[in-house]
Prior knowledge:
By secondary structure, the chain is mainly α.
Amino acid sequence: xxxxxxxxxxxxxxxxxxxxxxxxxxxxxxxxxxxxxxxxxxxxxxxxxxxxxxxxxxxxxxxxxxxxxxxxxxx
Length: 75
């Protein structure tokens, strides 16, 4: 998995976060809406969990890529 992260360009991850990770832009991003639902305990439908995972995946990839870059620099 770490080698895959090394081969994914950071610009691609940033584009995914800016598009898929924030879509739709109005009235508010789906991920933000789903995180609010999760905090309120209203995230119960399977489609809501799928939607949160779908829009959250680019952000998780960005975090993993960032941690990989940091860990490679500290070695």
